[in-house]
Recover the amino acids of this structure.
């Protein structure tokens, strides 16, 4: 498989008073198309920061991320937004749905920044919710949905754009066992259809089961040894 | 992201924070309302002055005066019938009439008062300045010797209303110096007196005392001259009876008006009776050679006037006319030029009112800043989600700017309605007060479409300026920190 995404000497440092936090420290990583990559690590190890850097949501202190050989550093802010809008899907532990909108509107929101017309947005959102067996919950607000349903809506929102890659940050972190399994199955299903997935989790067992490759993050550094799936 | 998408999001956000948005909008409403009401008052005041000028035709009126002294070696230019004829040929001049004031005694019933009357040609009486009547008309009915009065005459005769003067007969009298009267006093009144003088001059006394004779003759001539002058000054009183056919709205003194306006025909009858017996006028006439005719014989029928009025065309150039008159040796005054000064005062007045309104608007704009800054704090997570979904900084900035703009647009629209409503109510109240005070009611407030456009633009513009900084801040929110809930 061809290399699609690559992190080269990637660093992200934060200043906390006089102290510098090395959240991501000289990470080198490559991802092939259709790969399901797991990144495990304890809380505060820097795995979410790495995910945000790879998604173009955060700007590295040093190093670069290359997509199809093109470095992020050469993209303007607008181009990076376009990249996120067109090619990246993101799923968060806390779902990050907007409480004022219905499930349908939350899903349709992902197409807002790609210039789709409102009617098309809503039609496509309804279709994907139907496919994810949430058709009857389309008009419900997030507060009226269960955690699992909220995460499925969040995944629908990420997938409606038909992205090249899905970044999932602890997607099952707030879910019970049954819902976790359901979400896991969904991710595997999407990956089996050619979608590249990068999932960060503290759950080694889950990542072991789902991912083609798992890397361990410790104090901002990716450990060279791979954890066997 | 289309404009309608941004608008829908902005509108939805304002709907979600109803109370805060309403209070912020209320600030704009009050500021714009005050702005509109105050500037409506300014516009109304200006319109009233312009209407007044138009009503009396002052924009098309120019006064010409003689200058005190002529150029070096030249006699000063005078306003006489010849000069009036020349004025009438100047470009843009429709009509010329002199200012001809006559001192008269006016008697109505048992009341008599001394006034100055102004003689006017029928065409002058037809101009706008003399056509604004509160009662009657300027043109007398057939066979009527009519005059037009100003409201000053109503006051002089202590009448309660201008209508009371209408149709009343006035006896106009003028005291003139008379040669007949002088001669009658200078000459001995009967033959016996002449005989006495002749008897006193016998041939002996003449032969023997020529000095006595000379003294006698000189004494008699001197006494006769004294008697002539006394008789001349006592003169005669000429009278004419006229009827008041109209009363002008303007008061005497306003626009240089005298209490009574006489048709030239009536004035001529009074004037031709003889020179004024008023010593000052008499000596002035004597000095100018008017009583016994000018030595050159040119001025005998050529009257001089202190000033003349030019009724000019609407679009005539005042500056050009003024320059021409100056070159001819006259000075001039136009109400249109005078209005330029008034217009400057109104501009300053409007600016002051506008500044007060603007201060209110800026205060209200601070409310917008506060509202939008709070909105950013509350919606950081939303901004983070939008950015994670692909929103760029412009998208976020535009949404917040639109929210400010919507606050401004809604506030300005309601504010304009409020300002208009307040000015209508204030106008009604003011008119009622004016009616109660016996003053002709005028519209104090005017809300021209341009003011509405300016208020709406100002409201939206100030709101956008107020929202610009919070919107920029919103656009720069770090999505990672926002999603982490920091």
């Amino acid at each position: 498989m061809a290399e699609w995404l690559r992190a080269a000497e990637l660093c992200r440092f934060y200043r906390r008073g006089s102290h510098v936090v090395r959240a991501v420290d000289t990470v080198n990583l490559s991802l092939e198309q259709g790969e399901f990559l797991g990144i495990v690590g304890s809380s505060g190890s820097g795995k979410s920061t790495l995910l945000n850097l790879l998604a173009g949501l955060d700007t590295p202190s040093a190093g670069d991320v290359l997509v199809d050989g093109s470095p992020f550093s050469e993209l303007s802010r607008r181009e990076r937004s376009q990249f996120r809008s067109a090619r990246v899907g993101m799923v968060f532990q806390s779902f990050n749905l907007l409480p004022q909108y219905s499930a349908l509107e939350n899903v349709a929101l992902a197409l807002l920044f790609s210039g789709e017309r409102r009617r098309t947005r809503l039609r496509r959102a309804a279709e994907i919710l139907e496919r994810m067996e949430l058709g009857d919950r389309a008009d419900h607000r997030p507060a009226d949905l269960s955690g699992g349903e909220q995460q499925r809506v969040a995944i629908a929102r990420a997938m409606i754009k038909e992205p090249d890659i899905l970044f999932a940050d602890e997607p099952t972190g707030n879910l019970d066992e049954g819902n976790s399994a359901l979400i896991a199955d969904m991710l595997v299903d999407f990956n089996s259809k050619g979608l590249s997935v990068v999932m960060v989790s503290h759950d080694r067992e889950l990542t072991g089961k789902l991912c083609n490759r798992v890397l361990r993050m410790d104090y901002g550094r990716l450990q060279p040894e791979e954890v066997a799936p | 992201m289309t404009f309608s998408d941004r608008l829908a999001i902005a509108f939805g956000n304002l709907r979600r924070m109803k109370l805060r948005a309403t209070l912020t909008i209320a600030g704009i409403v009050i500021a714009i309302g005050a702005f509109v009401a105050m500037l409506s008052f300014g516009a109304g005041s200006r319109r009233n002055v312009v209407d007044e000028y138009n009503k009396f035709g002052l924009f098309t009126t120019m006064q010409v005066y003689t200058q005190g002294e002529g150029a070096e070696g030249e006699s000063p230019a005078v306003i006489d019938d010849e000069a009036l004829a020349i004025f009438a040929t100047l470009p843009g001049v429709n009509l010329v009439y002199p200012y001809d004031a006559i001192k008269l005694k006016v008697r109505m019933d048992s009341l008599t008062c001394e006034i100055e009357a102004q003689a006017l040609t029928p065409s002058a009486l037809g101009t706008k300045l003399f056509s604004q009547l509160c009662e009657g008309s300027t043109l007398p009915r057939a066979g009527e010797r009519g005059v037009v009065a100003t409201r000053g005459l109503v006051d002089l005769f202590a009448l309660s209303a201008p209508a009371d003067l209408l149709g009343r007969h006035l006896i106009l009298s003028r005291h003139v110096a008379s040669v007949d009267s002088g001669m009658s006093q200078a000459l001995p009144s009967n033959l016996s007196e002449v005989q006495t003088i002749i008897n006193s001059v016998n041939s002996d006394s003449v032969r023997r005392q020529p000095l006595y004779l000379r003294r006698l003759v000189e004494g008699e001539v001197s006494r006769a001259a004294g008697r002539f002058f006394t008789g001349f000054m006592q003169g005669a009183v000429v009278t004419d009876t006229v009827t008041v056919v109209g009363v002008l709205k303007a008061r005497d003194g306003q626009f240089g008006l005298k209490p009574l306006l006489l048709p030239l025909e009536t004035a001529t009858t009074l004037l031709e009776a003889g020179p004024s017996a008023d010593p000052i006028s008499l000596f002035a006439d004597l000095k100018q050679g008017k009583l016994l005719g000018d030595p050159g014989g040119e001025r005998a029928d050529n009257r001089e006037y202190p000033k003349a009025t030019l009724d000019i065309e609407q679009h005539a150039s005042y500056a050009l006319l003024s320059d021409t008159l100056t070159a001819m040796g006259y000075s001039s005054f136009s109400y249109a030029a005078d209005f330029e000064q008034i217009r400057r005062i109104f501009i300053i007045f409007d600016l002051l009112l506008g500044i007060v309104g603007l201060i209110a608007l800026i205060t209200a704009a601070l409310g917008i800043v506060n509202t939008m800054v709070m909105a950013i704090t509350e919606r950081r997570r939303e901004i983070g989600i939008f950015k994670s979904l692909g929103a760029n900084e412009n998208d976020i900035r535009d949404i917040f700017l639109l929210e400010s703009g919507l606050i401004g647009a809604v506030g300005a629209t309601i504010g304009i309605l409020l300002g208009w409503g307040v000015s209508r109510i204030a106008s009604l109240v003011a008119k009622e007060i004016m009616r109660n005070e016996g003053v002709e009611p005028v519209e104090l407030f005017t809300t021209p479409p341009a003011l509405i456009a300016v208020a709406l633009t100002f409201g939206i513009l100030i709101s956008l300026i107020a929202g610009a900084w919070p919107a920029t801040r919103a656009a720069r929110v770090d999505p990672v920190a926002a999603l982490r809930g920091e």
Q: What stands out?
A: The first strand of chain B starts at residue 61 and ends at 66. The first helix of chain B runs from residue 3 to 16.
